[in-house]
Every structure is written in C-alpha cells, then in structure tokens.
Model the fold of this input.
Amino acid sequence: MNGVTALKPVEQKNAHLSCKVNGEPAQVSVMPCKTLLEMLREDLQLTGTKHGCELGECGVCAVLIDGLPALSCLSLALDAEGRAIDTIEGLAEDAELHPLQSAFADLGGAQCGYCTPAILLTSKALLDKQPNPTREQIREALSGNLCRCTGYQQIFEAVEEAILRISQAEKQAAAGTG
Amino acid sequence: MMRLPRFHYFAPRELGEAVQVLAGEEDAMVIAGGTDLLPNMKRRQQTPRTLIGLRNIDALKRLRNGPDFTIGSGVTLTSLVEDEKIKSDYRGLWQAAAQVATPHLRNMGTLGGNICLDTRCNYYDQNYEWRKAIDFCMKKDGEICWVSTGSKKCLATSSTDTAPALISLGAKVKLVSANEERTLALKDLYQDDGIHYLKRRKGEILTEVMLPDSSGLRSTYWKLRRRGSFDFPVLAVAAAIEFDERDNIKDARVALGAVSSQPIVCATVNEFLQGKRLTDEVIEGAAALCAKAAKPVKNTDFAPHWRKRVLSRIATYALQELRGDDMRETRKKIARQYL
Done:
C-alpha cells in the first residue's frame, strides 16, 4: 500500500463532470452532495425524470445508466462521470415517438402519467436486451416500478403491443431493402 | 424534498488509495452502490463527513475461479444473478441475490453492500422529524430502544438476503485496511447487536467473498416478504446440505435471516441433521428447531409470533427442495417468481 500519493477530495464548490446525456456530450458543474436526479432536473432542466419517494421505494426516477435501469435519486451526480445517461427526453427520434411511447398512448398505458417515463425507459432496456420477452419477463423487469393508478394490466399490454409494432417495422424495413 | 447532507467525496481508482483515505479521515464511510447508505443519509440516520466511492475500483469487480470461487465485493447483484456458475453451483446465493429489492436496485447494489447492509427497524428507518418526534432511539441520537424499552441493546434486524445464503455455503470474507489484511468466516463478521452488528474494524474495507468448492453440495434460499418485490425479508431460511451416495446427510448448514440482529447459524439443526436422511419426520424436527432458534421482535412487517410460527413452514419448504421435491409452484406462490 506504499507509494500511493495522497488523494484529494472532489472540490466542494467547483466540481465538474463530463458524461453523455441522451447521446450528447454534457459538461456539468455540481455540488458533490447532489444526486443524479437533482442534476438532471435542476442543472440540465430535464424534468421528464420524475421525483418520487427519494428513497428507492417507488422506481419513478429510473433512468438508464450505460443502458441499465437505475434509480437517479440514489445515484450521486459525480458518479455519472464518463457514463451514458438516457432519460425520457431522448426516447423519441425528432418528431417520431418510440414504438413504446405510441403503444402506451394508444392503449392507455399511462393514466396519471407520473410513473410512465421510468416505465418506458425500463421497458426499453428490457427490449434492447431481450426483444421477445414473455409476460412473466415483462412483469419481472417492471417489478421495480410502482404505478399508484394500478394500471399494470394496460402497461403490460402496451409493452406487448410495442414488441409487435417493432417487429412489424423491422419486417417492413427488411422487405424494403431486400 | 430530502437533500443529502454535505460531505467530502473521494473517488479513488485503486484500493490502496481508498484504504489510505479511510485511515486518514475522521468519520468517513465507503459507498459502493449507495442504495442503502444514501436513503439513510437523506433521513440523517447516517451522517458521515466523508464518503469514499468504491465504484471506480476495478479490482473489486472481479469474479475468479481458483481453489475458492472468489467474488469481488463491488460485483453488482445483477451480475451475480447473470453468472452461470453461481446459478448452477451456488444456487442458494443465486436465489438470494435474485430476490433482493428490485431489478433497478440490483443493477446498482453490490454484494459487499448487501453483506454490510445496515440493520433495520420501524423506529429507525424514518425521516429525521419522525425520529425526533419520538425523541429518537438508541441506534441513532437517542437512548431508548422503542421495540423493547427495557432492552440494554439495540434490537434492529439484520435484513441482508445474501449473508444467510453465503454463511450456509461456508463463505469467507477478506477485509483490507491500510496496515493489514485478514480473512474470516462470514458468520464471524456479525454479532448480535443492532448498532455494532459488524465486527469490521475501523479503516477496513470488505474486498472479497470466497466460496469453497461446491461439489456434492445442494443449497437453497427461501425468503418471506409482503410483496414480490421491493421488500426486505421478514424472515429467511438458507440451507446447504452435502449428501453421501446413499442420500444420508454428510454435512448440513442452515442459517436464518431477518429474525435477529445478525444472521443466525442454527447449530442445533445442523447437528440434528447429521447422518440422517431427509424423511418427512426429520424435516419436521429440523423445522421446529429452526423456529426455536429464531428471535423475531416487533420491529418490522408482520407480527413476531406469526413470523416465528411461519418460519417452520418456510424451513420445511427449503429442506423439501433440497430433498429433491418439486417445489416450483410453492416457490412461485411465495416468491411470486420461479427461482
């Protein structure tokens, strides 16, 4: 353990971090005691990520960190250094909604809508890893997201509808290029 | 809105740096996944002046084969659940890790963090104003244990899922400080005190978990909680049994979770099972001994007498599974998932 130079703490008033937010490089100055949720909402004005229990008991603040669903209220902003953060603002491509978003809108997958951003991102992470999940796998992947409107049935159906739409779009694209 | 209190933050890349900072700073804590510590800091249950982030130390994130199977303390619970060797050879650990909290929290939380998880209590896991209104409790800022006002020691409950499973599998842990390294059996890391539940010394970081070879060993973990997700255990049974070629028990290790301030090693059950076959009568006898060893108190979900009574049922399921019974539907009913 010898020969290690003394490590300094991160500056309290002038801490900088660089990360990627929704694919774009971002440079942010934050206090070390800020959470990723506070940084996204207050410093980057990305208020699509919602603020719920703040204790990891509801899942409403979920974002994707390096592609994995994680709770932004229990992540330190500084730990986002060098990582890719995806929030709900980055899900649509220009004016075109992601198939998950359009399926949720068409099938009533959102009631009050407060838990929806986190559920959409968590579902996206599931579909990126497993394009054809069973109902059981969808249920398990979303088991960390509470919906106080209790609209789980419509949420599961909307995810399944999105899977169909994505595979149809892929088939059409393949037919078009073939 | 609950903000984190201010703290100095260190982000070392080497373990050597981390232990040096930890040795040099007063009132410092290490943070890995943060899923246990940050809520506690928001509620001012834990208020370290310095945090040392372990997230960037790659040496803590390795899984290694050798005489022992070694798991770095910084390996996330999701990585554990996705590891094929753990799923096949250390089934009890796999089942425990798969039932911790939620998928999101498992993506963040680490094995080391779950082993060192703060003990929990209805009178402690509350925000500052709530705790102030009852004049605090013994575990933080107060003097009285509200679970049992005559108690001289804190009765907060050990709520780790992975520790009972690891103990039943005979795990050892490595602790590293600036001056020394030591290895001890995981069961010896704990003591029956809700405040000083870990015998970790000041300046030590838990770096590795070592599991002995599992050939011939069958293991399982059963957890009871109100919901199929999120909740900490209200009781848990971990068991690992080695059978001989005639299905007699060569070695049995049963450990209980969430019914004391530390995981309970059921020595009486282990002795009782030695040399026997897992008949219905033997399972019934062992399950009754498990319930006898449990000391649930009124500080979590469900009534203590019910938790004690139902523990023998859960222990029965665990031993039936190790006997080779098909417990999938029972498991699905209790865990809400096939494990």
